[in-house]
Write the structure tokens for this entry.
Amino acid sequence: MKTPDFPPALPAGLTTGHRLHASGLRHRYDRSDVLRDVSVSVAPGEILCLVGPSGCGKSTLLRLIAGLERVQAGSIEIDGELIASADRHVLPERRDVGLVFQDFALFPHMSLADNVAFGLGKLPRAQRKSVALDMLSRVGLADRADDAPHVLSGGQQQRVALARALASRPRLMLLDEPFSNLDVRLRHRMRIDTLRLLKDSNSASIMVTHDPDEAMFMADRIALMNEGRIVQLGSPAELYRQPQSPFAAEFFGDVNRIDAVAVQGRAVTLLGIFDAPGIADGGRVQVLLRPEALLAHAQALPGSVPAQVLASHMLGGYSLLELTVQASDGRQVTVQAQVPSAGQWHAGQTVHVTVNPAGVFVFPA
């Protein structure tokens, strides 16, 4: 019998639009609000990352979509079918959802091939084996099909878990911190492999992570959560370059924070004058500057500000400089700048700093 095509052909009418739509989800544990009116949609082939600090509600949202928790308020639809609401609960195994967890959850007494074939019970035995071997081939483990999970490395086990979840060609893939148990080098390799497999499958995918770099790498869109709400939703570039709050700016990268006062729609600081639209004269503001927005030069340039290097830390291709800028009236500010390591930077050196305004964000204090 012919092995099913991979990726699967989508039914007519489902090549565009939302595969998953969750609306108005609210959830409580005891007297504590965990989700507060959360709505989110994911299209076929799209990867949405839920990211935020511990306790923000991202794992609870994933569990509701998976069917591991019952919806208390709001609704969840897959391909227009209502699968969860306060009055309806489709069982997890009937939602056509693939799940990948951080602990791999492989069956220790089964071979890799049998692990991958586990969710294919509706297919004839020969076809189950054919699909399982095909999926193991896609994750580079076809020659280990008869091995037990315990003889594999952590990264290999996670690839088997991913193959098992994708083998049934689910409409929706859910991944909960899938790389957190792997070391740094292996984690990066697994991100690359997983991203390729998810895109090939054309499933809608939602991944929970606490790591902003991982979310930026994996996601088409990111939902940044805090205290049970989605506080910003957009592409990785939008969240990094156009944060809508100090929380969003600081979550996706280090910032230097400088207090200032708005004058005629601008914030005046020792490092320069920056736009502060919509803030009344005399209003206190926070100016957040990304370290890579501070550019260090050996010679003075038009508009540059002199600064003294307090310390220089080489971190591979770039160096992190600790700088102090001092005004003639005695005011001073200490900031960090991320600059190319090609320069010869050392403590006590005087450099001249310019600022790229694309890395500057001004918010009301």
